[in-house]
Amino acid sequence: MKTLKIFSLFLALSLIFSSCIEHEVIPAPVNTVDLNAAFIGFVNGTQVEFTQNVNGYGAESENTEDINPSPSPSKMTYGTKIKSLYNPQALRVKFGAQEWDVAQNAYPTVSMFNEWLNLYTDAPVGFSDQGLSGVEVEYVDNNGVSWLSRESDPNQSAIFEFTGSQSDNTGDYAFFKCTFTCLVWRYNTQTELDESINIENGIITSWFKK
Questions:
Q1: What is the dihedral sign for C-alpha 66, 106, 126, 164?
Q2: Distance of alpha carbon 93 from alpha carbon 172, whole angstroms
Q3: Distance between CA 16 and CA 20 in Å, rounded?
Q4: Taking residues 44-52, what's their average pLDDT?
Q5: Confidence check: pLDDT of 20 > 60
Q6: Alpha carbon of 82 to those of 18, 107, 137, 191, 196: distances in Å?
Q7: Taking burial as the number of CB atoms within 10 A of a residue's CB, which of 19, 39, 48, 205 is the most buried?
Q8: Buried/exposed code over 28-52 (b: 16+ C-beta within 10 A; e: otherwise)
């Protein structure tokens, strides 16, 4: 009888201790896409280059949506901006606008997103203010001054090459290279005149986020 009581005591203690052991929680694997971006081009004849993870440079998404009740089309303009944590110089490209019916989809699906972008690969794309029906380029200079392209300028060009798409836990991405030449403008409040600078042989490799 004493042996049985001792055995029961050990059994109870082992159950208590085993219940107190914290089991290791292994987090679910995180799927991440490598979001690299870079820009190189000649700004007023001087070569300018931004490289991912150099001097704090990286890209961020800057999309603009215009949601309208069906049957009026809703519109999405996609944007990517290469900027630094430490330097004011930056470059942004806006491209749009993709149209869709919110009665069918609240937002463009992944297949709609990719199919629409692929329509423009390796073909000249016109410039458009705010990227509403083409491409808009914004350059931010060393002083933090913004310069914008204009759709009315002649002799400017842009060609996209969409190089693939990937998705991760943060969203859906389409990767591209855009080669462009254009003027970008600002209004000088001191002289009360428009001023422009030229970007030649600009190449931006980046991504749009759905």
A1: positive
A2: 18
A3: 7
A4: 97
A5: no
A6: 54, 25, 12, 30, 21
A7: 39
A8: eeeeebebebbbebebeeeebebeb
Domain span at residue 168 reads 33-209
Q: Residue 80: is it exposed, middle or buried by C-beta count within 10 angstroms (0-12/13-18/19+)?
A: buried
Per-residue tokens: 176: 């591209």
d(Cα 9, Cα 5) in Å, to the nearest integer?
6
- 92-138 pLDDT tens trace: 999 999 999 999 999 999 999 999 999 999 999 999 999 999 999 99
185 within some domain: yes
Counted residue by residue, the chain has a size of 210
- Using an 8 Å Cβ cutoff, are 207 and 171 in contact? no
Please report whether residue 148 resides in a domain: yes
Whole-structure pTM over 0.70, yes or no? Answer: yes
Q: What is the dihedral of CA 53, 54, 55, 61, to 10 degrees?
A: -40
Indicate whether 57 belongs to any domain: yes
Residue 48 forms part of a structural domain:
yes
Question: Which run of H or of E encompasses 167?
Answer: strand 157-168
